[in-house]
Design brief:
4-stranded antiparallel beta sheet; 54% helix; single chain; binds zinc ion
């Protein structure tokens, strides 16, 4: 098991040593020599791999070689390790550099993105600045329009109110006129009646001799006749149903008795003193 690991280690090293390989004559501690190429050294440096001139490879114990050969192997191993360390360092540096480049690139990308964002922001700001006056103008116009509409509505309201007031006045006037007309008609009617009564009285109070109005003075009234008379008349008989409503009527001819009185009025004129008389009858 341990030998397998060792061989693996040797093999790994042998590959690395191929580049600066050279065929050399090695001397063993017992004085024998071998012509071979060193192709690998184990990690602990105790076993080497030789490749003989015939191409065959095989392990060889380092302690069985001369001091000079051992020194040579140590030297080769050191050189190889240094070379590997150098390569490792180079790889690490390269990785570092690549990482740095990657970081720088990302940084650049971030800066670019930030720049674009800033530009966008600026553009937006400028657009807002450009649009702001127009926007303000529009708002102003809208406000003005609204004010005008309100003003218009106010005027219309005022007109409507005035119109209603006018109508109210008109109605009031009509009502007043109607009332005045009624009052006038009543007053006129009454006046007419008074006038008629006055005219009739005036006519009936005229003196037959001097013809002056308001001359008649009744100085005596005598009952000269009183008798009973029959008068033709009509009685109306109404018909009712069970609910007490009138359903019709019948007119029946009938007679009634009245008292007829005849008076004689003796008169004298206030103006000329002329005396006269006349008769008149009453029925009760
Ligand atoms: Zn007279």
């Amino acid at each position: 098991m341990k030998k397998t690991v060792c061989l693996a280690a040797i093999f790994s090293l042998s590959l690395a040593l191929v580049t600066n390989a050279e065929i050399r004559t090695w001397t063993a501690t017992d004085g024998r020599t071998i012509k071979a190429e060193l192709v690998g050294v184990s990690e602990d440096g105790e076993i080497v791999t030789f490749q003989r001139t015939d191409g065959k490879q095989g392990p060889f114990s380092v302690e069985k070689l001369s001091k000079a050969d051992q020194e040579y192997i140590k030297q080769k191993k050191r050189e190889e390790e240094e070379r590997l360390a150098q390569e490792q360092k180079k790889r690490e540096e390269a990785a570092k550099q690549s990482e740095a480049n990657r970081f720088a690139q990302e940084q650049k990308k971030r800066e670019e993105a930030a720049r674009i964002a800033q530009e966008q922001k600026e553009e937006d700001r400028q657009r807002v600045e450009r649009l702001a006056p127009a926007f303000a103008q529009r708002i102003k116009e809208q406000l003005k329009e609204q004010q005008e509409r309100e003003q218009q509505a106010k005027v219309e309201q005022e007109q409507e109110r005035a119109r209603q007031e006018q109508e109210q006045k008109q109605r009031q006037w009509e009502e007043d006129s109607q009332k005045a007309l009624i009052v006038g008609a009543v007053v006129g009617g009454v006046a007419l009646i008074i006038l008629l009564v006055w005219a009739v009285s005036r006519q009936s109070s005229k003196c037959p001799l001097c013809k002056k109005a308001w001359g008649k003075q009744i100085i005596n009234t005598l009952l000269i006749d009183s008798r009973l008379e029959t008068r033709g008349s009509f009685d109306t008989v109404y018909h009712y149903n069970s609910k007490g409503e009138v359903t019709g009527s019948t007119t029946i001819p009938t007679t009634k008795i009245v008292t007829v009185k005849t008076y004689e009025n003796e008169c004298r004129c206030k103006h000329c003193g002329y005396e006269w008389s006349y008769t008149h009858t009453t029925e009760t």
